[in-house]
Amino acid sequence: MVPWTQNCRMLRLIALLMVSEFVRTGFVVAFLPLNGAHYGLSPAQTGAIVSAHYLMDALAKGPMGAFTQRLGLGGALSAAALLGLGLLLVLPLGWPTLLLMMIGAVWGLFYSALWPGVMAAAQQYAVPGYEARALSITSMSVAPAVVLGALGVGQLMQHVPTQVSFILLDGQIITVLLALSLWPVRLSAPPRQLGNSWRSQWRKVAGLLPAAFAQTLAPGLLVTLFYPLLQQLGLTLRGLILPTLFGASILVLTLLLAGRAADKLHPRFVLGPGLVLLAVIFWLAGFVNITAYLYPLAALLGLAYGCFMAGWNGLVGLTLPLRHRAVYWGIVMAVESMGYAIGPLLGGLLWATYGLRGVFWLGSLVFLLVEGYYLVVGRNWNKVKDAGEQEHLNVPGN
Asked: Where is average pLDDT lowest: 107-111, 158-162, 304-308?
């Protein structure tokens, strides 16, 4: 069963998210770093443009959630798509770096509405009893697009570099068309409930933030160490294809089953085992010869992340107040971005000081601390949505 009441609308939103992430990842990870000199940009200038975009994206998620909730999801998404198209078009014109940074920052400002808006829509249009699955499928759908943008565009830059700009431009035009087709979409806001003050709503959101930061910090440790790790282990990207596909298939299957359990029982029933298993995997990765156990580790990683993602998305959807949902999604995602931002710094320091074991074992400790936090603090969170809000979750035509 498709987990949304507005299937066509959600599929367009997911398609917009996928194509947008493909273009952005391909542009900032592969195209601009490898081709910046062709446009008169030094590595420092390229980094400044990318940093301005990502910094604004991270900082503006909460405020742009409020903008999206008030003025409409379709308008914010259309602005983001048009600004991205504008940056791709003006890049060959040789404009000053400062101006390109400003365009990149404004693109990041409106791009920050994309993820919270799409996740809020997935929550709004979820079939009752399918919320965890709806949110997990939405968040996972973008993974192939990100991988294709990072690795696929990089490969194309090595073989047909002159065609990459046209591919990215065509992709961004598709995002504009998809966003414009969603122009009328607005997120519904349930009426304010008696006793449901802003302070009580914020208390729920604040309970998620320490865990949101920590659980992105752990995988963030490995962001800049991926290729050094492959080199140290004597592995190649081609050698990882089959284990990755195997682990991904386990992840998808687990995600569907764990999502069902999260919806029927409670998200913590699958979130806890997922976090504990991730802690075990990170500990093992620092202890055993990874190359000798690629397939078992891939299977365990798929199982662990499938449980974790179903549980986390279900818990966020269950905890966040439905009123101003895009704002609260933005706040949670902004804190998650901080974890990814600080993780590479800590990972690099640990790699230089303690090597591979230090990185993986810190990740294991972080996952265990997150699970401990859920066990101690999570008991005080409401197990159901606010009274009177559930009926507003799926308002036809919203």
From this structure: 158-162
DSSP string, 79-143: HHHHHHHHHHHHGGGT--HHHHHHHHHHHHHHHTTHHHHHHHHHHHTBPTT-HHHHHHHHHHTTH
Q: Are 366 and 207 in contact (CB under 8 A)?
A: no
d(CA 107, CA 110): 5
Distance (Å, whole) CA 210 – CA 221:
17
Q: Which long-range contacts (CB under 8 A, 24 or more apart) does 137-142 make?
A: 137/3, 137/255, 137/259, 138/10, 138/14, 138/17, 139/309, 139/313, 140/251, 140/252, 140/255, 140/309, 141/14, 141/17, 141/18, 142/14, 142/17, 142/18, 142/21
Q: Do the Cβ atoms of 164 and 279 come closer than 8 Å? A: no
Pick from 82, 43, 351, 336: nearest CA to 216 = 336
Architecture of the 198-384 domain:
Up-down Bundle (1.20)
Contacts of 214 (CB under 8 A, 6+ apart): 339, 366, 369, 370, 373
The per-residue pLDDT for 42 is 84
CATH topology classification for 7-181: Growth Hormone; Chain: A; (1.20.1250)
* Cα distance between residue 311 and residue 336, in whole Å: 16
Per-residue pLDDT at 189: 64
Residue range 361-381: average pLDDT? 84
Q: How remote is the C-alpha of 177 from its chain's centroid?
A: 23
Which ranges in the chain are annotated with CATH 1.20.1250.20?
A: 7-181, 198-384
The answer to whether the beta carbons of residues 175 and 20 sit under 8 Å apart is yes
Per-residue confidence (pLDDT) for residue 324, from 0 to 100: 75
Residues 301-357: pLDDT tens digits? 999 999 999 999 998 888 887 777 888 888 888 888 888 778 888 888 888 888 888
